[in-house]
Write a structure and sequence with these properties.
Order of helices and strands: HH
Strand content: under 5%
Structural class: mainly alpha
Number of strands: 0
């Protein structure tokens, strides 16, 4: 019985050690890959969108109709 117990403990220690080493390597390799990708493949700069000129007769300060439409849409979405 004592021999079986010691074999179980040995197996448990080796198994947990293997998992610990694997996860540690995984963290290091993932962080190295992240740094390499950030260095050699940086994200492109965001494009600057120029504002379009307003059409004649369009009021930019009056958003009452837009707010009413958005409120109705949100109310209909939430009522489902």
């Amino acid at each position: 019985m004592d021999n079986l117990f010691s074999e179980g403990l040995t197996l448990m220690v080796f198994g947990m050690g293997f998992v610990f080493v694997f996860l540690t390597l995984l963290v290091f390799i993932t962080s190295i890959m992240s740094r390499l990708i950030g260095r050699y493949l940086p994200e492109p700069a965001p494009k600057v969108v120029k504002a379009r000129p307003q059409a004649a007769g369009v009021q930019t300060g009056n958003n009452d109709e837009l707010i009413a439409v958005l409120t109705a849409a949100v109310h209909k979405y939430r009522s489902k």
